[in-house]
Amino acid sequence: MANDHTPSEVADAAAYRIPPVIQPGHSFGTITDKIAAIVLTKHTPVVWFVVAGIGFLMTLMLFASLTKLLFTGIAIWGNNQPVGWAFDIINFVWWIGIGHAGTLISAILLLFRQSWRTSINRFAEAMTLFAVACAALYPLVHTGRPWLAAYWLFPYPNTMNMWPQFRSPLIWDVFAVSTYGTVSLLFWYTGLIPDLATLRDRAENRVARTMYGVFALGWRGSAQHWYRYETAYLLLAGLSTPLVLSVHSVVSFDFAVGILPGWHATIFPPYFVAGAIYAGFAMVLTLAIPLRAMFSLHDFITDRHLDNMAKVMLVTGLIVVYGYAMEAFFAWYSANQFEAYMIENRMTGPYWWSYWMLIFCNGLVPQLMWVKRFRTNTAILFIVSLVVGVGMWLERFVIIVTSLHRDFLPSSWDMYYPTRWDFATFFGTIGLFITLMFLFVRVLPMISIFEMRTLLPEAKVKEEAHG
Hints:
The chain is an all-alpha fold. Helix content is about 70%, strand content about 0%. The chain is built from 19 helices and no strands. Helix 5 (about 100-110) packs across helix 10 (about 225-255), helix 8 (about 170-200) runs antiparallel to helix 10 and helix 14 runs antiparallel to helix 16. The longest helix has about 35 residues, at about 170-200. The chain is globular.
């Protein structure tokens, strides 16, 4: 029958064949050896030291800027009247958005039984935790007195019967982010337990064996262990799924409940959630492509993974562009002079460059992803993901600064200029994120060992036989 097909038909069939999620030639043993060796080997790639070193130096810059902040106050930032919140809220929302993709990949794709999530879910979950940690830093330090943050923000029983203002969006953020961070941490740690036991059994160093053994919680891989693990993991996935939608919806309410032109929009919750997934997948690609090259993981993180993530990025990017179009449409259709001026100011005002760079980064550049040749080209994909990351930061800058610097009262209008301490804090959190990520890939398996084993044909044959 094969001879009935022309060479061009065979080539077309090969072009449309879905690539595997793991390259052939692997067995249970080779998967375990390869992933565990990244952690247990004594030889670390030089690139790891270079990137981790840069991240560490940037983290030191963060500590220096925070020390200056604690001794001087937030006057070292460029915040003024009327732009009372600037880099602190911009960076907070940006980091929270990046933290979305990890839980989305792990929880929602797990519930939909998408096998391609397996190669990327572990480090995407870690990315979520580190991004949330960077985000949580800003509500703490934006007051200039973080030692009072617990007193002001966290509800606790006290003899004065004084409680935080529950109508303040800042309190909503505290509940949303802390709940999201807690559930994400439990979900990530639960998924790690079987792999921690594998590392415990393979580690030659006594200290490492003890540490992995403690955190493996006595895992022996019995049928009862697996039954309880599967139950707990699915429950946490079900619990995490609505949080993906809720946490950034709550963050969007910070703006939507305001009466300021450009903030008071009902489209913000879906627009923010789509933007968060957009930024999150861009960050996953930004991390996955270099890590794949650094540790030769091309057989585990295949072109199919990159292709699928590029498609998700394209779809969510189109939703975000739709949100930009609706903002302009509402400003025109509402016939509200303040809304109309807001959008005109964004396009032609002093910060016009940020609006049009935003359109270029988030609207135009990702359209390259319509072409499969670009989606599977790692260099282009890496550049596009970096551009999207910049574009999503600019989106927060546009929403916050261009709405605040020219509000209802022209007499209070003013320009906002970030200071070196604003930039030092922002780039410092990027350094903290890089440092934590590179420490993570060195001490814990960045790809789930036992879930990768379930992708092999042998595992599927056994499942069918038992079924």
